[in-house]
Amino acid sequence: KNEVEQSPQNLTAQEGEFITINCSYSVGISALHWLQQHPGGGIVSLFMLSSGKKKHGRLIATINIQEKHSSLHITASHPRDSAVYICAVIPWAGGGADGLTFGKGTHLIIQP
Amino acid sequence: EAGVVQSPRYKIIEKKQPVAFWCNPISGHNTLYWYLQNLGQGPELLIRYENEEAVDDSQLPKDRFSAERLKGVDSTLKIQPAELGDSAVYLCASSLGRGNEQFFGPGTRLTVL
User: Fold this and answer.
1) Strands B31-37 and A106-111
2) Could you say which of B59, B101, B107 has the minimum Cβ distance to residue A48?
3) Beta partners for B91?
4) Separation CA A33–CA B102 (nearest Å)
5) What is the largest CA-CA distance in chain A?
6) Vertex A59, ends A54 and A64: CA angle to 5°?
7) What average pLDDT score do residues B24-53 get?
8) How many other CB atoms are found less than 10 A from the CB of residue B13?
9) Which of A49, A60, A68, B74 could cysteine-pair with A73, CB 3.0–4.6 Å?
10) Best residue in A43, A56, A102 for a mutation probing chain B (most B CBs within 10 Å)
11) Could you read off the pLDDT of A29-58 as tens digits, one per residue?
C-alpha cells in the first residue's frame, strides 16, 4: 500500500467547475507539498503546508494533520489548469525514507 | 533568479551505453535531490545531498548508477551501462535544507533503445 494515496486518479470537468483533489497519507509528516506537472514539463510547487489552509489565486490547499488528509481545490477552473497534480509529503526525520514521498498524481482535464 | 537547471532535456541512447545528467541547483541551496519518475507514476528519490555529502542513497542502484556533487553545488548522475528499464524522467530538485520547500528542474527524459 502506498504511503500517499490520491483520489481521484483521473478527473475531467467543464470549465468553471469547482475542483477538489484529495490526498491521504499514513506516515507522520513535517509538511505536505502540492505540486503541478504539465505534460512534458517539469514540476512546479504550488503549496507547502503543515497546518490549516493556504490560498493562492484560484487555488486553495487545506490539511488536517490529525486525520492525515489534505485537499487541493481549484475555483472557477480553466482549461489551462489541465495538468497532473501531485501530493507529496516530507516524513519526520528518521521516520522513514528521506526526500519527498509522492502520490501517483491526479490527471485533471478541464474542457472548454 | 534562475531556477534549477538540468541538461540535457532529452537523451536517446542504445542499451549498454553510458549516459550522464547534469544539475545546477538554485544558488544557496545546500540540499540537492535526484528523483526518478516512470511514466504515470510519482517521482521516487534516488539520492539526497547535503552540500557535497550523499546522506541518503539507499534507493540508488549502485551497480550501474553513480552520482557526485564534488564542490557542493552542481551534481552529475551517471548510468553505466544503461538498460531498457532505465527509460524515465530524471528530476533534480534543490532546497535550502531538508524539510524546506523543494524546487524542481525541468527534468531529463531518457529513452533507452
Assistant:
1) unpaired
2) B101
3) B35
4) 9
5) 46
6) 40
7) 91
8) 17
9) A60
10) A43
11) 888 999 999 887 788 999 999 999 999 999
How confident is the model over B82-113, as pLDDT tens digits? 999 999 999 999 999 877 888 999 999 999 99
Interchain CB contact of B67 with A (< 8 Å): no
Does residue B84 sit in helix, strand or coil? helix
In 3D space, the residue among A19, A21, A23 whose CA is nearest the CA of residue A2 turns out to be A23
Strands B75-79 and A19-25, by their bridges, are unpaired
- Roughly how many angstroms between the first and final C-alpha of chain B, as a whole number? 37
Cell matching residue A9: 486518479
Residue A56, all three cell numbers: 493562492
d(CA A4, CA A25): 4
**Which distant-in-sequence residues (6+ apart) come within 8 Å of A48 by Cβ?**
A31, A32, A33, B101
Name which of B9, B33, B34, B45 to mutate to probe chain A: the one with the most chain A Cβ atoms within 10 A of its Cβ.
B45
pLDDT on residue B41: 84
Check CB contact under 8 Å for A104 and B58: no
pLDDT at B76: 97
